[in-house]
Amino acid sequence: MSTEPPTNSSDASNPDFAAEVRDVRFEDELEQSYIDYAMSVIAGRALPDARDGLKPVHRRILYAMHEDGVTSNSGHRKSSSIVGTTMGDYHPHGDSAIYDTLVGMAQPFSMRHPLVDGQGNFGSIDDDPAAAMRYTEARMSPISEELLSNIEENTVDFESNYDDRLEEPTVLPASFPNLLVNGSTGIAVGMSTKIPPHNLGEIIDATTHLISYPDASIDDLMEHVPGPDFPTGATIVGRNGIYEAYKSGRGKVRMRADYEIKERDNGSDRIIITEIPYQEKKARMIERIADDVTDGDLEGVTDIRDESDRDGIRVVIDLKRSANTDVVENKLLDNHLETTFGVHMLALVDGQPQVLNLKEALQEFIDHRREVVRRRSQFELDEAEDRAHILEGRLKALDNAEDIVELIQDSEDRDTAVGALEDEYDFSEAQAEHICRMQLGSLTSMEATEIKNEYEDVQTRIEELTEILENDDRLDEVIIEELDEIKESYADDRRTSIIEDSGSVTHEDLIPQEDIIVTLTEDDYIKRMGVTQFDTQNRGGKGIIGIDLKDSDTVSEVFVTNTHADILCFTNHGQVYQLKGYDIPEFGRTARGQSAVNVLDLGDGEEVTALVDAGSFSDDQYVSMVTEQGYVKRTEAGEFQNIRSTGIIAAKLGDDDELVDVEITDGNQDLVLTSKAGKTIRFDETDVRSMGRTARGVHGMQLEGDDTVGGMVAANGSDKALLTITENGYGKRTALSEYRQQSRNGKGVIDIKTEGRNGPVADVKPVAADDEFIVMSHNGQIMRTSVADISEVSRNTKGVTIMSLEEMDTVASIAVGHSALAEDESDAATGDEDSTEETVADTSP
């Protein structure tokens, strides 16, 4: 309820007397005041902007350094000077808050890519405080300049600072997605944010993918961003928390310290910690471990030493000879070496707090970057058009140089000359002013040529800028090009590894290592059987039943591998999955097996066509693939690490194409492709450049008619031979030297005659004389025989009978194993338990 306004003139003129007094409920006023305060803290202090990933204090520090010229190319400036400038001009909230922020931006263990280059004591991972600001110096790091690039070109909006003396940017242009790259942590009123840091290269790859494919799903983006990448390295345990965080914006990521166990000279063990979880304080962790030892909660520890130095972390825990190392290790994991990072991706979107998933966070940056590049292009276009206008005037003046010089000489003053030029030659005021300021030396022929060249360059630039502004695809190309340049300049290797969370201890040591046969059917049934279930037969035998098929189901593939092998399963759709050999369900010889969807997340019509041993990958190896239509590609083996349970893309395929075979190569081998019609081509693998997983590849073989590729072999000129088997059970062995090397995309030479009795080629494999191989028919017959039983012959022959088939049955697939297969029988006979250490080397189909 309001009172009447004051009528007494003396009271009304009193500045302390209110013109209006209102009665309000105390709780209503308190609620509104608290909301106003909360929003002020949320927007003005605690939460980062989704576009540049910075809170106001971070943004103001960087802008103050930019304005003062404290760049990466300048000398270091006293931190107290930077703090004073920031506080006096942009952030009047106290020097300690500003300096604490500056220190955090300079700590390599706090930020994945530090935005400040500090000199002096900026604290440590032990939570030691930084030196006072008068003792430290700082400047911008090179990557922080990428956040401010083009800020003078009207790329972002500005607003008045707190006292209206200056202007400050509301957001930085941000040339890379800093919100995800460096992450952010903040506590506002009633809400908080905790965004983990990521690998710059991975985030840029995901960003460019989303620009190119706007409908990309979270799963698609996670093919580029497998998870956070913390500056302190360590290991993430499990992928479910990562997936939930990327899908919903909230999730829990379990982090584990990296450590190794070594045996000492006295027979006792030593646990050496080399990396610790992000935001874990090393000194405090050591204190907690020591307290548990003192309290008797951690038994068997004799000494704890911190041997860390500038090269990295090294915490040594010595154990007693009588200590149970497994028990100590598990207690350390439970209580000290594992922490949880609670992801809460909350950021400001249009000034309002919003929880973002991975795609939304990237999209906010993309939208911002498009606006920045558009405004920058318009700014450059305006300047270019102004320059072109002046150059047009200069060119026109050159054409009438003598008359213009005379006109200016006859004028009383400059204003008169400007007016005369506008009247006589239809110059604009800007052109006339410029001509009056020109020196006579600029009228030389050399100067005229330079003006013409500059005018042509400016016109070309105008056309480029106009296209950027009018063509959204060209705008996106510019953004992608600039992101790729930043990736090239600043990206580094991933520091944090990711391992699967088994949920409990995997008793892998209790699972015997043995060679196994894996079979798959057209209806996606899978099983494994021990190799020893099948005795060796001479060539031409019928084999024995290897699977009891139902209805119209047929065998599609057979593989030889090991129970402990890390297997990559490539499918005809170009996907790749990962599993252990013992993860494949074991069944008897005549059993059908288990539906593959319970083992692999296969799609409709998707079949496994190739298996390789992922445990043998090294940095200098490649995964070489061939498709049914003859496309070949090579991809670095490192791109097939940390594969999700849902699989990842191995190759992009055409609508009518399928992936048929995969080989591991070392960059110095030949690739041998064989078609169903019996043609073979051999070429150097370096003829196929290395490319990314989502690439389709290049032509490897010209196919005639309806011919398709049947298989691929990696050859290195050794004593290996090519084993070719046709669908009707005939085959031959021919030395690789019989196949001359040629350029890729040729028609090749005849390998085996397929007309008449033989039928099309079923499979092709490299073999040695002491190898054994397994042949399986579509109806489930399986035969194990020796390579030595097949005589080595020249190419372009019909071959001999390998397997006798029942009517209407054909060969489905073959698998080759080396000496381990032959040793199985002797080991079984002698009861040699150590034989399980041997692993089948060739696990391709």
Give keywords.
single chain, 845 residues, alpha+beta, Topoisomerase II, domain 5, Gyrase A, domain 2, Topoisomerase, domain 3, 4 domains, four-stranded mixed sheet, four-stranded antiparallel sheet, disordered N terminus, disordered C terminus
Strand content: 15-25%
What's the name of the CATH homologous superfamily of the largest domain? DNA gyrase/topoisomerase IV, subunit A, C-terminal
Count structural domains. Answer: 4
CATH topology of the largest domain, which one? Neuraminidase
N-end to C-end Cα span: 87 Å
Low-pLDDT ranges: 1-10, 819-845
Largest sheet at a glance? 4 strands, mixed
Biggest sheet, spatial arrangement of strands: 14-9-8-17
Q: What is the percent of helical residues? A: 25-40%
What structural category arises from helix and sheet content?
alpha+beta
Identify the CATH architecture of the largest domain: 6 Propeller
Your description of this structure?
This protein is an alpha+beta fold and 845 residues long. It has 4 domains: 54-173, Topoisomerase II, domain 5 (Alpha-Beta Complex); 256-341, Gyrase A, domain 2; 370-490, Topoisomerase, domain 3; 515-832, Neuraminidase (6 Propeller). It contains 19 helices and 41 strands. A 4-stranded mixed beta sheet has the order 14-9-8-17. A 4-stranded antiparallel beta sheet has the order 10-11-13-12, with helices on one face. Helix 3 crosses helix 4. It is globular and about 110 Å long. Mean pLDDT is 85; it is low at 1-10 and 819-845.
